[in-house]
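Let's practice the habit of predicting before peeking. Look at the sequence and jot down your guess about where helices and strands might fall. Then scroll down.
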Amino acid sequence: MALRGFEDRLERMVEGIFARAFKSGLQPVEVGRKLVREIDAQRTIDVRGQRIAPNDFSVRLSPVDYERFVSIQDSLIRELSGTVREHAREQSLLFLGHVTVSLEPDEELRIGVFRVETRFDESTEASSPVYLELPDGSTLPLPGDTATIGRLTDSTIVLNDPNASRRHAELRVDGHSYALVDLGSTNGSRVNGVKVERQLLRDGDELTFGTVTMTFRLV
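Done guessing? Here is the structure:
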């Protein structure tokens, strides 16, 4: 579960030099739980019938709590963003754009009280390209239309694998995501180990062509 992994990582994060700051008062894990609840409360259906979730989160804290959180702000935001993406994936939800989480001080809030404001924000989509994580650790941003996959040298993603077909598959824009479309390849295309002919992709899906596996990243 997204929250369980987040809580485990957070526990390790606040050990040592940060432990004293988080012995009492507002706990970072409370913020993670609130973000997950907001996703579940604000999810909706777009005009294409796709289930979408808010992708912009502003966490407003009392000035005192904000100062306590500053010491781990970068790591905390990274963990919160990952938890949001993981929970959305578990719930088969898509985002309109890049997931952003910010921490803001609010003079009107007292210690221990915080508020989360959410938005559906498409404006971050262009500056945050969808990409693939390749087996060698490198990343490849996907074009805004169709990406071809196969052994042909003019493919967007060239597969140096005899088990892959010359024209193996395509990644086609489909709403707020991409769809993997197999092109009648000899050995098929797989998403998370399951052979598919056409499959709408979610962040973190593992795509396999022949013996090559790569990870789809939506945000």
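How did you do? The two ends are 19 Å apart (CA to CA).
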